[in-house]
Write a structure and sequence with these properties.
Radius of gyration: 26 Å
Strand content: under 5%
Number of helices: 6
CATH topology: c-terminal domain of poly(a) binding protein
Oligomer: single chain
Family: Belongs to the bacterial ribosomal protein bL20 family.
Largest sheet: none
Function: Binds directly to 23S ribosomal RNA and is necessary for the in vitro assembly process of the 50S ribosomal subunit. It is not involved in the protein synthesizing functions of that subunit.
GO cellular component, one term: ribosome
Number of strands: 0
CATH superfamily: Ribosomal protein L20, C-terminal domain
Helix content: over 70%
GO molecular function: rRNA binding; structural constituent of ribosome
Shape: rod-shaped
CATH architecture: Orthogonal Bundle
Structural class: mainly alpha
Pfam family, one: Ribosomal_L20
Distance between the termini: 88 Å
CATH class: Mainly Alpha
Order of helices and strands: HHHHHH
């Protein structure tokens, strides 16, 4: 069996790994064994962060809707319940955008919902 020298391959793998750790501090950037573990953890944190981002955005939309609805003497809970009863199928992202960028249209929606419940 012939001898296989892996220097070039290993160097390329290490270089690829160390390029992923650019911007990290101290030995996490320089040492291959530490860098490998750091990259694995970074991937896990990134996955978690993507999930948390969705949660944070929904929380922001709800708070914006709540603030706008409270100015019209309704609670967020009453507004969402009335929306469902009046069969208006707008998601929270759209409602929050309307509340911030187009208050007149949002007011029309609130009035329509209020008329349906009374």
């Amino acid at each position: 069996m012939s001898r296989v020298k892996r220097g070039v391959t290993v160097k390329a793998k290490h270089k690829k790994l160390l390029n992923l750790t650019k911007g990290y501090r101290m030995t996490k950037r320089r040492l291959v064994r530490v860098a490998r573990e750091t990259v694995l953890h970074a991937g896990e944190y990134a996955h978690t962060g993507r999930k948390l981002k969705k949660r944070d955005m929904r929380e922001l939309w709800v708070s914006r809707i709540n603030q706008s609805v409270q100015q019209m003497d309704l609670t967020y809970n009453q507004f969402i319940n009335a929306l469902k009863k009046s069969d208006i199928q707008l998601d929270r992202k759209t409602l929050a955008d309307l509340a911030i960028n187009d208050p007149q249209v949002f007011k029309i929606i609130v009035d329509k919902v209020r008329d349906q419940t009374n």
